Amino acid sequence: MISSFSVAQELQQKHVIIHFDSDKSALTEQHKSKIRKAIIDLGFGSIKDIYIEGHTDSDDTEAYNIILSQRRSTSVESYLLKQGVNETMLHTESFGESYPLSEVKSQNRRCVISLVYVIWTNLPQDPVAVRVKVIDAISEKPIPCSYTIEQRDKIIPGRTNKLGISSFKYDPSYLKAELITSARGYLNERAVLLEKRPNASTDSFDLVIRMHRVRVIQKLSFKNIYFHTDTDSLKKESEPELKRLLATLQKFSQMYVEIQGHMNYPTSRPMNAIQRVYNYNLSYKRAKKIYNYLIASGVDQERLTYKGMSNRAMIYKDPQNKAQQDANKRVEVWTLQKIKPN
Question: Cys-Cys crosslink for 319: which of 144, 189, 255, 324, Cβ 3.0 to 4.6 Å?
Answer without folding.
Answer: 324
